[in-house]
Structure formats: structure tokens, C-alpha cells
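Internal ticket #5521
Category: modeling
Description: The requester needs a full-assembly model to guide mutagenesis choices. All entity lines are attached below as received. Residue total reported by intake: 622.
Assigned to: D.W.
Attached entities:
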Amino acid sequence: MTGIMDKVLSEVSALDPLSFTAADVSRALGEDRLGIEDFASLLSPAAERFLEDMAKRAGEETRRYFGNSVSLFTPLYTSNYCDNGCLYCGFSRDNKIRRAKLSQEEIEAEMSKIAGSGLTEILILTGESRKMSDVEFIGGCVRTAARYFKNVGLEVYPLNVDEYGYLRDCGADYVTVFQETYDPARYAEIHPFGPKRVFSYRFDSQERALMGGMRGVAFGALLGLGDFRKDAFACGIHAYYLQRKYPHAEISFSLPRLRPFLNGRYSGETISERELLQVALAYRIFMPFSGQTISSRESRTFRDNIVGLSATKISAGVSVGIGGHAEEKKGDDQFDISDPRDVAEIRKALTDRGLQPVFNDYVRV
Amino acid sequence: MTDELMIGGKRFNSRFILGSGKFSLEMVRAVMENGGVEIATLAIRRANAGGEENILDHIPKDLTLLPNTSGARNAEEAVRIAMLAKELGCGDMIKIEIIRDSRYLLPDNCETIKATKILAEEGFIVMPYMMPDLSAARSMADAGASAIMPLGAPIGSNKGLLTKDFIKIMIDELDLPVIVDAGIGRPSQACEAMELGCAAVMANTAIATAGNIPMMAKAFKSAIEAGRLAFLSKPGRVLHNGGEASSPLTGFLEDSK
């Protein structure tokens, strides 16, 4: 199954972001449909002074494909037990934090409370521990979620095809897996132990999810772990090649960048908002039909503005601790959030900008 | 002279079908009114019955709804979405949209033919969105379609009638209304489609992305009406290959007598 991985890694290793010129960027922006080289040029330092032109083009593409619609959702963290040693993450196994896992009753209470806010889409997350949050536990969460929500996403540890199939049958619709970094050497360094060390198994997660019958898959590189231009390029072409192989798949991108976390001592490369925006715009122009989610890691000003340009989905009423919607949260957070606004506030922010908050854009059939 | 659009036994005075999915919901009424719209499409996937920002709550009650099966990847899913539309009280018209390509959003004619047959047998007035292919359109007509909706260009592209020649063939050969769906980006392109003989034009992105949305709806209304009048009045001959020779090319026939 690693055909796409080999292709992506080979193209990334051949990429030199400094090799692109202003003329390359200008030509790319003049193309109707961008090729892989064009995409790389938009991520290069040469494209930095074209940011305004990129924003204009990205905004046009977003309006063309999505009109002024912006989807709303919220994540629910169900457990923060983890078997991995990711150096950059608050849930990392050896990090001394309050660990917790919600019971199925608590999960139902949380979901009921979230559904009361009007949201019809939920993203279920767990820490990456098969032992503490096994597939049956996740299946229970999904079955409950399918009763309260029209669209159920999963962001859990990578699974096998039959497990994705089981969760689809429970009511899950799409799967998000972040590769974190697409540089295998860097990946090995920052994942010193745990099942996550196996780069290729994680890389093929989206493909296994589609083989298991999931409708859509989401991709993300945690920007700041490695060379962010190369990671963003790899992430984009990972999605591109997978979509070519599975043309029906609904594709979306997330744009996480490193955030501080409790007891955190890891410091990667700092990605500025300007650089983050460049990546977001490049994804939009390269794959104009793809969804794009903007995290509550980012500031309200940044989020409010990027939804008109490239992002099509925004989280609202976010708690990144374990629980925290219906009852006091039971476990500590994965990272610090910057935008704590609830659903009503996000909704107002969107309508104030002439955008249409969309609570439902999905029918499970 | 009355010039009504007939689809599945229903009569309409307007030939402007509006897609409703890309506007702010409070704009919907203004667009309908300015465009003189009588039929509006509605993505069932956007319906949020009993919930927040439900598009169904914003569509004027006097409009005819044309729910679509957007999100369906095969005939079976399209049929299920159509049934859901009926349960939601959206009437008996259905626009079949089956898309298995998330990059270009091009329709799958084979699955669309299958869904057309099932839904026509279920009593729906079926309007399939399709790639302009005469043979597939004939199969859809045989399967019970009430109108055929070929794309002019990829959805959202605003590129106009890229498939003009094939649409013209379908207009000439089919006994059903042919309605251009997707790709129409400007009023002039809508006018061109109507002048060609299309029964109606559907537009969404072109209006949703305009600077002044109600005014653009009005412009489309005028263009569609102008194109229709031009079609009905049978346009005069247009010379495509330069001027007309003042001495007839066949004059030698007289000389040789």
C-alpha cells in the first residue's frame, strides 16, 4: 500500500523551496489548474511577496466552490491516555498530567450538551492508547454520536481497514490523521517510543479509512516540527495522490502549528501567522474543492479572517481537556487554545462578516 | 402568446432556475424576487429540519422546490436522498446529482440512468444532471426523466457553454426540455443557451459570487428572457465565412446555357 508514500517521499526529498523564482509563482497563479510544481512554488519563499495575490485567488476559489458557507463543528476529547512519546504533545505518555477517560454515560451527557448548542457535526478524539481506548470504546462513542449528530468525524490512533469498516458501520463518516512531519528522520527523532513510531503505518491511515468505507479523510502536518514548506508540500501531494486513486473521497486539510502545552519543554520552529496563511492559501489554490479546517489554536482575528479566504470549517465551543462541555473537565488539555468562543459567538462573527454559518451540510445515506 | 415551461406536467412562467446553496440565507428571498424565479434547487444535505440555519425555513413558500441529491455517490444513495426529500415535504420533483469525483465534481451518467429509472417508477418528476452525451440522455429519457440537465462547464467554473455543440445536438434530438445546469457564469452565456433552444437555465455560483447579488439576479432574468425571445423569433441568418459574393458562385450555370 505504500506506493503513494514512496512517491510523496521521493518528491519531497527532491524539493528545494529556494529554487523557485517570482516568475514561477506568477506563472502558477496564472494557471487555471495548478500542477505539483506550481503548488510547490506557492509554498516557496519566492511566493511570500505574492501573498496578497494568493489571497485574492484563494478567496475566489473558495467562493466558487463553497459560496459564503462556513461549516461549524466541535471536537470532543474522550480520553487522554496515550502510549506514545511524542516530544511536542501534552498527552505524551510520560508527561505528568491528569489522565482521564470518559465513561459512555459521560460521553452521552457531553454529546447531549453539545447537540443542544445547535451543532450537528462532532469530531471524536482520543489519546493514542489502544489499551485505554480500544476500538469497541470508540465504537460506543460513535454509536452515541450518530444519535445526536448528522456528521461524525474521528481523530484517533491509526486503525486497520476492518476496524475503520466497523466504525463506519457504527456511524462514523470521516477520519482525520495528522502525519505530523513527513520527514522520516525527524519523525523518528520526535517519536522516541510507542506504536506511532511506524511512519508508514500512519501514512497509509487515510487510504485504509477509505478502503474501510469512510466518506472523507483529512490531512495535516503539524507545522513547526520540520521544514514547514516541505511538510506542507508533502501533505498537499499526499492528499492529491490519494484523491487521484479514490476520486470520490472528500478531502480536507487541517492547519495545526505547534502550540505550548502543560509542562511542555519542546520548541520547534516558530511558524508565523503570515507563513501559516501562505500554506492555507496554497492548499486552497492547489486543491480548490477541498475542505479546510481552522483550529482554535489560532487567534480569533486570524480565524475570523481566514474563513473568508480559504478555510471552510471552524470549530466552536472548544474544550481540549477531557469532557468539559456538560461537566467540569476530568483531564488536562492537549494544548493551549487561543479562541474560546462558543457557538453563538462564532455564528455571530461569521454573519457579521457576511458569511453563512452552516450547521448541516451532510446527509448520511 | 403564452410561453410556458412544462416539466412533468407542471407549468412555469420563469425559465430561470436558481441554485440556493451558496448564498447567505437572508439573501435568498431578494434573489428570487429580483430574478423572477419560480423554481429553486435545494441540497437536501443542507436541510437541517428543526435545527439552526435550516435552509428550508428561508425559501419562500410560493416557490417550487427542486431538491437535489448532492452528496450521492451512486444510484442507491441518490434514491435514499430523494426519499428523504419527500419525507421532508419538498414535493415530487427531484434533481439527480451523482458525483463520484471530488476534484471536478463531474456527474456519473451510468449511475444517474439507474437512479432515474427507480425514481421515475416511484412517481418522482426526475431531472437528471448529466454529462452532455446524447446516448446517455436518451437512456435517461427512456428511464422516465422529465427534463435533461446537461452541464455547460464544470460546476462553479463560470466558463459558460463549453459543451455547446453537444447541448445543441441534445436540443435537436430529444423531446424533453434541455436545461443547462452548471458552468453558466454570465448573463450573456445564459442568453446564449436560451437562444440555442434550451428550455431553461440554472445558475448559482454566478449570482452568489457577484458584487451585487440581487442586481445580478435581475440581469440573469433579463438575459434569459432575451435569449428565449430570440429563439422563438428565429434568428436571422448569420454569415460565418466572410461576406456574400456579389456575383453568384453558381452564375456560370446561366452563362453555359
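Resolution: model delivered.
Comment from assignee: Strands of chain A lie at 69-77, 121-125, 151-155, 174-180, 216-221, 250-254, 291-294, 313-315, 356-358.
Ticket closed.
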